[in-house]
Amino acid sequence: MKVFTSVNDKRNHRYIGLLSTLVLLLLWKVISININAKIILPPPEDVIIRLIKISQSRIFWQSILTTTIRTLYGFTLSFVLGFITGITCGSSKRVSAALSPLVSVIRSVPVMSIILIAMIWFRTDMVPVFVCFLMIFPIITANVSQGIIEVDKSLIEMASAFRLTKYNILFHITIPSTIPFVLSGVRAAVGVAWKSVIAAEVLSQPVKAIGTGIQFSQMNLETAEVIAWTVIAVILSKISEFAVELIITSQKWRLVK
Fold it and tell me: I need a surface site. Which of 189, 204, 218, 256 has the fewest CB within 10 A?
């Protein structure tokens, strides 16, 4: 009975989400008609037409590919270093106290400041990667560190009593116990990764990038094209979030099993 209820709830949520989307599109259309100025707010159909038109060019797909690669590169780099830093901070209060100011500063610095500084330090195609790294690094570090702190101390004491090595304790008890915190951090970081990369691309303007397409469209006062590129960015972000949710669901299944 609970299974059927769960399936019905998911189905109802999808219907509500679809209805909400249709209402937003209708509202967009009504506001566009009332404004009657496509340069300010083009109607939804104009955005769809523009999206179809720009998707027929090779540079469109190259831009999507390069932006995706930069996002994956920055995300992977920040995840690996953030994971290592989080384990170190969670395992040692002294290291945590030493690195806490640095992590706090990175977390507090405005995104635009990071982008402008990165434009001085790096070539244009590396600016989005660096910005993505700095935006995600504190999230992963904080979640992993909290996961290490929350590990059941009785398990560590039991493992020590059985004379397990620190290596075995780390890889068989500590790290597996942090998985829920890691997945939570990844879930929060995915959307931030796409936003930070595309924002950096808008300012640094690498040759092929979604952010560059947005900037050029804005310079040419092609509002429909700006929104079309933005729709692509949202779709890519949602695909990434969906992939993360699949991983989290599979992990829950393993834990239950």
Answer: 256
Q: Which of 227, 203, 226, 206 is nearest to 214 (CA)?
A: 226
Nearest to 197 by CA among 103, 144, 102, 124: 124
Largest CA distance in the chain: 75
Spatial contact of 159 and 169, defined as CB atoms under 8 Å apart: yes
Q: What are the tokens at 197? A: 């990369």
In order of 8, 22, 72, the CA distances from 245 in angstroms are: 19, 24, 17
For 75-128, the pLDDT digits (tens) are: 999 999 988 888 888 777 888 888 888 888 888 888 888 889 988 998 888 999
Query: Mean pLDDT across the stretch 215-225?
Result: 88
SS3 164: coil
Report the C-alpha gap between 196 and 202 in whole angstroms.
10
Q: CA-to-CA distance for 113 and 43, rounded, in angstroms? A: 34
Query: CA nearest 122: which of 72, 192, 63, 114?
Result: 114
pLDDT at 170: 64
Query: How far apart are alpha carbons 146 and 141 in whole angstroms?
Result: 8
